[in-house]
Amino acid sequence: MNKMDHQEVSGAVGEAFDVDALAARIRAWGLGFGFGEVGITGTELPGAEAGLQAWLAAGFHGEMDYMAKHGLRRCRPAELVPGTLRVITARLDYWPESADADAALNDPERAYISRYALGRDYHKVLRLRLKKLAERIAEEVPHGFRVFTDSAPVTEVALATESGIGWRGKHTLLISREAGSFFFLGEIFTDLPLPVDPPVSDHCGDCTACITVCPTQAIVAPYKLDARRCISYLTIELHGAIPAEFRPLIGNRVYGCDDCQLVCPWNRFAQRTAEADFAVRNGLDAASLVELFAWTADDFESRMPGSPIYRIGHERWLRNLAVGLGNAPSMPAVLGALQARAEDPSELVREHVAWALAQHADRSPPSA
C-alpha cells in the first residue's frame, strides 16, 4: 500500500475494537460522504477468474489491452495489494436531474451523450470521496488502505456483487434493487478484519430487454458482452476508424450508449444524483450534432477539461460526430457541416465525413 495512504496498525487489531460496530459506522460515514450504499466483502471472488479468462480468450476486449495486462491479479485483491483482508465497495449515483435521455435519443439532430459523461469526470470525484472515507476510518482505527476507481485493474462488479450492493445484470453491469444501475463504483482495499456482507441474488429473471434493445447486438448472450460491438467501446475505447457495419446502428450516440440501462425495469428506481459535479455542463444534454461538430480544437480544449469526454480528444470527438451526422436527416445545415470538414487535416475525420456524405447521397432521390 502506498506511503501516502498507509498507516501502520499496532497490536492485535481484532482485539482493539468492535468490528461489527466499526462496520456500521463505516456505512454511516459513507452515506454522510454522499455514497448511496456501502458494502464489505473479502478477497475471494468465486468464478471471476474463469469468467475473465474466457472473455479474454474470446477476444471480446478488443483493443482494451489493459484488460489482459494485469492477468488474474485483477481478480485477486490480496495479490494486487498485499495485506488486503477486506474490500469496502461504494456506490455513487450519477443520474442528472435535467437530462431527458429519451428526448435526446429520439431527436436525430441532437447528439446523445451517455448520462454519466454530461458533467465532471467521475474519477476524481469518486477517488476523493473514497479517500475521505478511508481517512475517516483511520481516525477511528489506523489501517493500511488504497482506494480504487475503474482506472485500476479491479473487478468492480464482482466485488460489488460479493459485498451485497447488487447483482450482475445480463448486460454485465451491476443492478441494485434500490437504485437501478446508473451509478459509479469504487473500492477501498483495507487490512482491517471487518465482517463481510452477504451477496444478493440475481433478480433479472426471464427479462431479456437489455439484450433485445442493444442497437449493435453487443450482448451476445446473457451476462456476456462482446465489447467490440458495443457503442460505448466504439465511441470511447476504439482509437481508429469505426467499422462501417456499425456506423448506421450508432444513430446519434456520439459518446457512449445507455440503451441497455434505459430499458431495464429496475431503473425505475434509479436515484437522482445530489452531486453538483455531475450536473450537466456545456449544454451537452441538448446540444445539436451540427453545433458540436463546429467546435474547433481550441473550443474542445477550453470546454472539455474536467469532462470524461476530454480523454478521447478532439479528433475522435469529430469522428463520432461525423457518424452521427451521417445518420441525421439530410438537411442543409447537416450537409453544410459535413462539407465544411471534408478536407479536415485528420485522415480519420475525413474518412468518416466522406462516409457520412455518401450516406446522404444514397438517400437523395435520383435527379430527373
TrEMBL record:
<protein>
    <recommendedName>
        <fullName>Epoxyqueuosine reductase</fullName>
        <ecNumber>1.17.99.6</ecNumber>
    </recommendedName>
</protein>
<keyword id="KW-0846">Cobalamin</keyword>
<feature type="binding site">
    <location>
        <begin position="257"/>
        <end position="258"/>
    </location>
    <ligand>
        <name>cob(II)alamin</name>
    </ligand>
</feature>
<comment type="similarity">
    <text>Belongs to the QueG family.</text>
</comment>
<feature type="binding site">
    <location>
        <position position="260"/>
    </location>
    <ligand>
        <name>[4Fe-4S] cluster 2</name>
    </ligand>
</feature>
<feature type="binding site">
    <location>
        <position position="264"/>
    </location>
    <ligand>
        <name>[4Fe-4S] cluster 1</name>
    </ligand>
</feature>
<keyword id="KW-0170">Cobalt</keyword>
<dbReference type="GO" id="GO:0051539">
    <property type="term" value="F:4 iron, 4 sulfur cluster binding"/>
</dbReference>
<feature type="active site" description="Proton donor">
    <location>
        <position position="150"/>
    </location>
</feature>
<comment type="pathway">
    <text>tRNA modification; tRNA-queuosine biosynthesis.</text>
</comment>
<feature type="domain" description="4Fe-4S ferredoxin-type">
    <location>
        <begin position="192"/>
        <end position="224"/>
    </location>
</feature>
<dbReference type="GO" id="GO:0046872">
    <property type="term" value="F:metal ion binding"/>
</dbReference>
<dbReference type="GO" id="GO:0008616">
    <property type="term" value="P:tRNA queuosine(34) biosynthetic process"/>
</dbReference>
<dbReference type="InterPro" id="IPR013542">
    <property type="entry name" value="QueG_DUF1730"/>
</dbReference>
<comment type="function">
    <text>Catalyzes the conversion of epoxyqueuosine (oQ) to queuosine (Q), which is a hypermodified base found in the wobble positions of tRNA(Asp), tRNA(Asn), tRNA(His) and tRNA(Tyr).</text>
</comment>
<keyword id="KW-0411">Iron-sulfur</keyword>
<feature type="binding site">
    <location>
        <position position="214"/>
    </location>
    <ligand>
        <name>[4Fe-4S] cluster 2</name>
    </ligand>
</feature>
<feature type="binding site">
    <location>
        <position position="174"/>
    </location>
    <ligand>
        <name>cob(II)alamin</name>
    </ligand>
</feature>
<keyword id="KW-0671">Queuosine biosynthesis</keyword>
<comment type="subunit">
    <text>Monomer.</text>
</comment>
<keyword id="KW-0560">Oxidoreductase</keyword>
<keyword id="KW-0004">4Fe-4S</keyword>
<dbReference type="GO" id="GO:0005737">
    <property type="term" value="C:cytoplasm"/>
</dbReference>
<feature type="binding site">
    <location>
        <position position="74"/>
    </location>
    <ligand>
        <name>cob(II)alamin</name>
    </ligand>
</feature>
<dbReference type="GO" id="GO:0031419">
    <property type="term" value="F:cobalamin binding"/>
</dbReference>
<feature type="binding site">
    <location>
        <position position="257"/>
    </location>
    <ligand>
        <name>[4Fe-4S] cluster 2</name>
    </ligand>
</feature>
<keyword id="KW-0408">Iron</keyword>
<feature type="binding site">
    <location>
        <position position="150"/>
    </location>
    <ligand>
        <name>cob(II)alamin</name>
    </ligand>
</feature>
<dbReference type="GO" id="GO:0052693">
    <property type="term" value="F:epoxyqueuosine reductase activity"/>
</dbReference>
<feature type="binding site">
    <location>
        <position position="230"/>
    </location>
    <ligand>
        <name>[4Fe-4S] cluster 2</name>
    </ligand>
</feature>
<feature type="binding site">
    <location>
        <position position="210"/>
    </location>
    <ligand>
        <name>[4Fe-4S] cluster 1</name>
    </ligand>
</feature>
<keyword id="KW-0479">Metal-binding</keyword>
<dbReference type="InterPro" id="IPR017900">
    <property type="entry name" value="4Fe4S_Fe_S_CS"/>
</dbReference>
<feature type="binding site">
    <location>
        <position position="207"/>
    </location>
    <ligand>
        <name>[4Fe-4S] cluster 1</name>
    </ligand>
</feature>
<feature type="binding site">
    <location>
        <position position="232"/>
    </location>
    <ligand>
        <name>cob(II)alamin</name>
    </ligand>
</feature>
<dbReference type="Pfam" id="PF08331">
    <property type="entry name" value="QueG_DUF1730"/>
</dbReference>
<dbReference type="Pfam" id="PF13484">
    <property type="entry name" value="Fer4_16"/>
</dbReference>
<keyword id="KW-0963">Cytoplasm</keyword>
<feature type="binding site">
    <location>
        <position position="185"/>
    </location>
    <ligand>
        <name>cob(II)alamin</name>
    </ligand>
</feature>
<keyword id="KW-0819">tRNA processing</keyword>
<feature type="binding site">
    <location>
        <position position="204"/>
    </location>
    <ligand>
        <name>[4Fe-4S] cluster 1</name>
    </ligand>
</feature>
<dbReference type="InterPro" id="IPR004453">
    <property type="entry name" value="QueG"/>
</dbReference>
